[in-house]
Write a structure and sequence with these properties.
- The chain has 623 residues and is α/β, with parallel strands linked by helices.
- The protein folds into 3 domains: 10-208 and 371-447, Metallo-beta-lactamase, Chain A (4-Layer Sandwich), CATH 3.60.15.10; 215-363, Rossmann fold (3-Layer(aba) Sandwich); 455-522 and 531-568, Ubiquitin-like (UB roll) (Roll).
- Helices cover 29% and strands 24% of the residues.
- The strands form 5 sheets. The protein has an 8-stranded mixed β-sheet with strand order 7-6-5-3-2-1-19-20.
- Strand 25 (557-565) and strand 26 (571-579) form a beta hairpin.
- The longest helix is centred in the C-terminal third of the chain and has 25 residues, at 498-522.
- It binds zinc ion (ZN) (2 copies).
- One zinc ion binds at residues 24, 77, 79-80, 167, 394.
- Residues 75, 77, 145, 167 line the site of one zinc ion (ZN).
- It is found in: Cytoplasm.
- Residues 585-623 are annotated as: Disordered.
- Belongs to the metallo-beta-lactamase superfamily. RNA-metabolizing metallo-beta-lactamase-like family. Bacterial RNase J subfamily.
- Homodimer, may be a subunit of the RNA degradosome.
């Protein structure tokens, strides 16, 4: 793609963060060197049963691990650093540079995952510069955002300077007094910037995003007029908001109890680094709160998004060991629900109200403000940086499209920008920008045990949707059943009696074996004992699936556990689980068990059991 055959193009490959808010992960590649920018996580949707973390598809990085020279981090939000431990488990990142708070939070994460010896974590200050590989020379430029210590990046490459804004708003009165270094961005703009990658989160919002300080008078009024206990929830990482709340507590003579591990953690780091200044005696552990009158208490808690395990959610369910809501409590949501969390949040609000709390929430109260710039802020960024080429990032598709329109409105020609998706390879030369192909993109899911493969998730969704139907049968080497096939249903709604379905399925299995046994004895696929067990299993599965579809009008997960007792007393256990819905007769080994619970065998996430057969002793099978 390069116009100069001697000079390769600079490749920009976002693996996450586009067409979504979350899992921001970007690759910059020049020659044979890769620089990583951030590695975040996303959060699972409701149909991702049991999934804790969503990561981008990292195939490209696994395959090009030898090119990775290092990573730079813009700030400490989970959608920018949460994925780093999962990366380090799969490939080396020799060094990670980032602002102090982000590096402190990352250090914690790596300690917890026992990965802290896997990379070198290096804190930088604004305007610090670092070299990574031969091709990348990076300058950190302070910006303003909802977390302290957030940066834009000016990345010098052999083709020119790439500015990556990170997440930003333009806050002229920052709570910590650390101003956006707009001067430095403008200097780069004057010298010439090849390409700008800019945060698109609020590209649909007209005007300017108000300063974080704008919430202070409104929260102050609530403190001044509340008589009972005050519980306030916000994002744990919103250091500036937390600082305002702590300052108001001190002003109004309330002691503060912090509930929720992530909130405690970020406050500790922010105090260490000087982003929050308050006296030690402001804080009391929640077990000691009953020594104080209600009107002298502030409980600062996680759970602003209705997260199932967060402290406020547990409090709302009456499940928190030490904090119970009582008449006269006031609960303040100093955060708006992220799209997708609205139902969880309103349910939490309902439960709190039902227990007698006065709950304050909603945009009209002016107690939350976004950490991302709006349209006029974007225009200012574009005007200061004056990039030749532009790529909107960090946003859903419509936000990227709006952001591109804004770039056109300030004079960047259409042909100098691309609106892209995760996995697109943006190629930039001195003269042009374009999409030069794709790398694998999508998601990788993680639960408590490890990677959740696509088929596992599909099985879980099917189980949750339509339940499971389990068939267990034991056959001898002559095709005779040692006992009638056992059929059980779990979570299945049946239009006719369950017993009728059970007999129908059992009869189908018996008839198929009786009528067609000779075909499987003659089959060219027959195993050591002369019988094509795999073929028989596939036939049984598709027959059961057809029957189930016809009779139940639903698509439960069908688990077939077939145990074969050969004439030589060797046992071939053939367990299979498959979905009736897709008619896929390949089958997957479900585990050793011949019972319905075998369906769990494949949910360990390693996927290794797929298509595998096991031999077991006669004694084991008989037991
Ligand atoms: Zn972000
Ligand atoms: Zn952020």
């Amino acid at each position: 793609m390069s116009d100069n055959v001697n000079q390769p193009a600079l490749k920009i490959v976002p693996l996450g963060g586009l067409h979504e808010i979350g899992k921001n992960t970007c690759v910059l590649e020049y020659d044979d060197e890769i620089l990583l920018i951030d590695a975040g996580i996303g959060f699972p949707s409701d149909d991702m049963h049991g999934v804790n973390v969503v990561l981008p598809d990292m195939t490209y990085l696994r395959e090009n691990r030898h090119k990775i020279k290092g990573m730079v981090v813009t700030h400490g939000h989970e959608d920018h650093i949460g994925g780093i431990p999962y990366h380090l488990k799969q490939f080396d990142i020799p060094v990670i540079y980032g602002p102090r708070l982000a590096m402190a939070l990352l250090h914690n994460k790596l300690e917890e995952a026992a990965l802290s010896d896997r990379t070198a974590i290096k804190s930088v200050l604004p305007r610090d510069t670092v070299r990574i590989g031969r091709s990348f020379f990076i300058e950190f430029i302070r910006n303003t955002h909802s977390i302290a210590d957030s940066c834009c990046l000016a990345i010098h490459t052999p083709l020119g300077v790439v500015v990556h804004t990170g997440d930003f708003k333009i806050d002229h009165t920052p709570v910590d007094g650390e101003h956006f270094d707009l001067h430095r961005l403008a200097e780069h703009g004057t010298k010439g910037v090849l390409c700008l990658l800019s945060d698109s989160t609020n590209a649909e919002v007209p005007g300017h995003t108000p300063s974080e300080q704008s919430v202070r008078p409104n929260l102050d009024r609530i403190f001044a007029t509340t008589n009972g206990r005050l519980l306030v929830t916000t994002f744990a990482s919103s250091i500036h908001r937390v600082r305002i709340l702590l300052e108001l507590a001190a002003k109004h003579g309330r002691v503060v109890s912090v509930v929720g591990r992530s909130m405690l953690n970020t406050i500790a780091h922010a105090r260490n680094l000087g982003y929050i200044n308050c006296k030690d005696d402001l804080f009391v552990p929640f077990k000691g709160l009953n020594k104080y009158p209600d009107e002298k208490v502030l409980i600062l808690t996680t759970g602003s998004q209705g997260e199932p395990l967060a402290a406020l959610t547990r409090i709302s369910r009456g499940e928190h060991q030490h904090i119970k809501i009582r008449e006269g409590d006031t609960v303040v949501f100093s955060a708006n629900p992220i799209p997708g969390n609205t139902i969880a949040v309103v349910n939490t609000i309902d439960r709190l109200m039902m227990q007698g709390a006065n709950v304050l929430y909603g945009r009209h109260l002016g107690i939350h403000v976004s950490g991302h710039g709006s349209q006029e802020d974007h225009k200012l960024m574009l005007a200061l940086v004056k990039p030749k080429f532009f790529v909107p990032v960090h946003g859903e598709h419509r936000m990227l499209v709006k952001h591109a329109a804004m770039a056109r409105s300030v004079g960047i020609p259409q042909e100098n920008m691309v609106v892209i998706n995760n996995g697109d390879i943006v190629e930039v030369t001195a003269d042009r920008i374009g999409i030069g192909g794709q790398v694998p993109s999508g998601i990788e899911l993680v639960d408590r045990s490890g990677i959740v493969h696509k088929e596992v998730l599909r099985d879980r969704q099917q189980l949750a949707q339509d339940g499971t139907l389990v068939v267990a049968a034991v056959l001898d080497g002559a095709g005779k059943f040692l006992a009638p096939p056992q059929v059980s249903l779990h979570g299945v709604v049946t239009p006719i009696a369950t017993s009728a379905i059970q007999s129908l399925v059992a009869r189908t299995v018996t008839q198929l074996v009786d009528n067609r046994w000779s075909e499987f004895v003659r089959s060219s696929n027959r195993g050591a004992n002369g019988i094509d067990w795999a073929g028989l299993r596939a036939e049984l599965e598709s027959s059961i699936q057809r029957l189930v579809r016809r009779e139940l009008r639903s698509q439960p997960l069908v688990a077939l556990a077939l145990t074969a007792v050969g004439a030589d007393a060797a046992i071939e256990a053939v367990n299979a689980v498959d979905a009736a819905a897709n008619g896929n007769a390949k089958g997957k080994i479900a585990g050793d068990s011949t019972t319905g619970s075998s369906a769990n065998g494949d949910t360990n996430g390693n996927g290794k059991s797929t298509g595998r057969r096991r031999r077991r002793s006669a004694a084991m099978a008989a037991s």
